[in-house]
Amino acid sequence: MTRPVIVFAGAVYPGQFGHLCDYLRKTGMAETYFLTTPGHRERNRHRGDHILGFTPDGSIVGKTHYYYTAKLERSARIGRGLLAAVQAFEQQRKIDVLVTHSLWGTPHFLYDETDAAIVSYVEFPSYRSHGWDPAYPPDQAQRMSDKNIEMMHYYQALRSDLVICPSQHAKRMFPPALQGNIEVQLEGLDFGPPLVKPPGTPFTIGFTARDLSNAKGFDTFVQIADRLIRHGIDARFVALGESSGATYGYEQQWVQRKYKGEVADFCAHLMREYPAVAQVIDLPGKLPYDDYVRQLSDIDLFLYPLRYGVANWGLMEILGRGGCVIAPDRGYPTELICDGVNGTLLPDDPDVWVKTVLALKDDPAHRQRLGQAARILGQNQSLQVVAPRYMTLFRQAMDNRARRLT
């Protein structure tokens, strides 16, 4: 088969699939291009001529006309600009596969307007299905707005030639009737070298996520840290991540309502509630990538008490670099971790977590074995391994497209 022409689309580059796009092109597996917004194209122009631009039909970050359809309006502006760019591209070159981000490269205006097979990447269909803590619920307006996002994702599952989700956990959030057109594949990563603990540094227990949020389990981490401190553990605590906002939850609005501006964010709230933790924990915030990796190397034991989530590239990187991880025995982490082999899975019982942390602290050989296995198994999600899998999925989408037309 000749090399397919595959065009990736997303308002953010590299974002999801930017590195995959580059890798497929570099290795000659496909002729690939990436359509992104003008600013991202300009900042990454040095990466190659295959990074192309599309211009949304108006601002995608400014004010919208109606709160309840704000994200739909943003998606329409993206979709309109993407359609124009695809049509211009097709005047010069046939596209075999269009790989789109469900929100930042929304494909719904592309259906019936292109001969390319359309693949939609959907992280999860809605916040309703994703889940949120009853202690910090969305208000009615947020629930109503979320219904429109769910509607748009269901439509993509119906009309796209293939939908890709990052985990089985995410796929199960769709209605059973739509799951037949959904395949699971996590984005490929380039893990880099294994973590190497600097000599002479104290035993360190760490938390790392995009944000220090309830959905990521930061409040659970703080509760466990508080119990460990009261137990008298000799350890350093560090939490890596942004504290000023929550990506997947509603706790920030709860903080604003409770404290009327006196407390900045959920992290600050927790530090007030757990002063013993506040006195010892390091909170470096969002770091440049190289600094982030250096911080990872200091950590002997990673606690990942996820509450809600469908995939986490941070967790995947920790495993792929050989970190020793404790995670919940439910949900997405169970797709990556085999208990006692490449990590530890525990029930949602803080006392069990404390007991396990203390045992692993005193058993460096066991931590090393778990970390070594985590790195070996984590390589199954490297770009080199997943790229052929993606090519199979893209050909599957092309076959699906051909069958739809017959």
How would you characterize this protein structure?
The chain has about 400 residues and is α/β, with parallel strands linked by helices. The chain has 15 helices and 13 strands. The strands form two sheets. It has a seven-stranded parallel sheet, with helices on both faces. A six-stranded parallel sheet has the order 10-9-8-11-12-13, sandwiched between helices. The two termini are about 20 Å apart. About 40% of the residues are buried. The model has no long low-confidence stretch (mean pLDDT about 95).
Straight-line distance between termini: 21 Å
Q: What is the strand tally?
A: 13
SSE string, helices as H and strands as E: EHEHEHEEHHEHEEHEHHHEHEHEEHHH
Helix content: 40-55%
| Low-pLDDT residue intervals, each spanning 5 or more residues | none
Attribute tags:
13 strands, single chain, alpha/beta, 42% helix, seven-stranded parallel β-sheet, six-stranded parallel β-sheet, 406 residues
Describe this structure in a few short sentences.
Helices cover 42% and strands 15% of the residues. The protein is built from 15 helices and 13 strands.
List the helices and strands and how they pair.
Elements: E1 5-9, H1 18-27, E2 31-36, H2 38-43, E3 51-53, H3 70-90, E4 97-101, E5 117-121, H4 127-130, H5 140-159, E6 162-165, H6 168-171, E7 182-184, E8 204-211, H7 218-231, E9 236-242, H8 251-259, H9 266-273, H10 275-280, E10 281-285, H11 289-298, E11 301-303, H12 313-320, E12 325-328, E13 344-346, H13 350-361, H14 364-378, H15 383-405
Parallel strand pairs: 1-2, 1-4, 2-3, 4-5, 5-6, 6-7, 8-9, 8-11, 9-10, 11-12, 12-13
Helix pairs in contact: 7-13, 12-14
